[in-house]
Amino acid sequence: MIDRSPKPPEALMRAIAQDLRPVRPSPRPLYLALQMVPLALLVSSLILLAIGPRHDSGILGPLLTWGASAAQFLVAIVLIWIAAHESTPAGRLPRQAVYSAAFLASLIVVFVTLLTFSISPANEAVRLSPLHLVESHFSSRISPWIMGFACGIGSTLAGGILVLFFSWVFRNSLATRPTVAGALYGAGAGLAINAGWRIACPISTLWHSLGAHGAAIIATVILGALIGRSLGNRRLHVGARRS
Amino acid sequence: MIRYQGGSLEAFQEIYAQLAPGVRRYLSHLALGSEIADDLLQETFLQMHRSRAAYNPAYAVRAWAFGLARNVFLMNRRAARRWAAVHESREYLPEFPVLPEADRLGSQDEIRRCMADLSPDQVEALLLHHEWGFSFEEIAGMLGMSAAAARARASRGMADLRVALNSLQRARA
B114 near B123, Cβ under 8 Å? Predict the structure, then answer.
């Protein structure tokens, strides 16, 4: 039995005294989410820097090309902010708000995809321009399956990098539901990457957008959930070993 | 807490002295009076130490510690399936603190008996607000609900408690 007086038990004091290095207080959830913006922006825009914007960006217009991606990126940051709240014992958001935000985020992705498909000349002959000749050449000659795999695997890998980074930031998370917290920052990573990839990807067909890009988002959600769960279990086991 | 984050052992002892009795009572309530409350108390402070960098000074230390204690309890319940063991082995009334607001409504034994019939969620909200003095905003942050929902849960709990006490007293009369 432990001494019930307000003094800490000897075993606990020994464990505490072993590691008393100073630590920096964690920032507020909003600042924590904002700290992730630069890296998320960099990783999500790598594809854009590599192959440039899609050939039909002129038809889509700046609002649907850049504005929709900016909105998706903002939603990604909101999801990370919610994950940061979920990881704070005294700062959790209402459960309904968490699930509603996740549902709304998926609706936004589907809506943007449908809108892009309806306006983009996806099923028409690709309008070639000198600047996008090479890109159009590839997109018209390479099998749609290969393009699908390239986008799916590429954005999953890019999202995976972000998920790993977010997991490192949330490694001391005290989430009651670590799987949910992990899924939330995984979804944030997936959406942030998709925000960049959808500007660069030359294919707007529904099966490609939802099948390849959507699958990549789902993959990052699952990856985040698994890592979150694993971190939660590790925390439990470390505590169990010590006690 | 900031001094503790800076590496002060004395600060940890002060935090423990201030928080441990209340956190232990809360854990004891969650564990329904089981002796694992002592283990969970130690575990809570170990987790607090491991994750002291995760604390943000914008949050009240007490609410943070109670929320952490709740997490530790839930994690242990999931991992060790102690919850089932606790429930199966219980044949006595849990040691609920008697709420000051309910004190005049009946004897301590009656209040405990009636609280045992309330839903665990209601009892938790009632105790967090009336016994440990947390605001509904703090309770909302700990339990993952809106402040209005926390208020409603506690109010319904108190109303149900009153009804149960009245019924009990009428039955005895």
Answer: no
Tell me whether B52 touches chain A (CB under 8 Å): yes
Place of tokens 């504005």: A67
Which of 71-90 (B) contact A at CB < 8 A?
71-72, 74-76, 79
A186, two tokens: 């995984």
Which residue in the block uniquely carries the two structure tokens 């607090």?
B48
B84 and B131, same domain (yes or no)? no
Packed helices A10-18 and B9-30: angle between N→C axes, nearest 10 degrees: 130
The ipTM, to two decimals, is 0.73
How high is the mean pLDDT in each 10-residue block of chain B (173 residues)?
83 89 88 80 87 85 90 79 49 53 69 80 86 88 89 87 81 73
Contacts of A215 (CB under 8 A, 6+ apart): A152, A156
Selected residue of B18, B55, B146 to mutate for chain A interface (largest A Cβ count, 10 A): B55
Query: Which of A86, A87, A88, A93 to mutate: most B Cβ within 10 Å?
Result: A88
The answer to whether A98 contacts chain B (CB < 8 Å) is yes
d(CA B150, CA A90): 14
B12 with B85, same domain? yes
Q: Does A11 touch chain B (CB under 8 A)?
A: yes
Residue B95 lies in a domain: no
Domain hosting B56: range is 2-89
Cα gap A165→A36, rounded to integer Å: 9
Torsion of CA B10, B11, B16, B18, to 10 degrees: 120
Q: Pick from A127, A169, A173, A157: which is nearest to A219 by CA?
A: A157
Q: How far apart are CA A84 and CA A100, in angstroms?
A: 16
DSSP-based three-state secondary structure for B63: helix
Model confidence band, residue A134 (pLDDT cutoffs 50, 70, 90)? very low
Q: What's the one-letter identity of residue A234?
A: R
- Give the integer Cα–Cα distance in Å for A211 and A209: 6
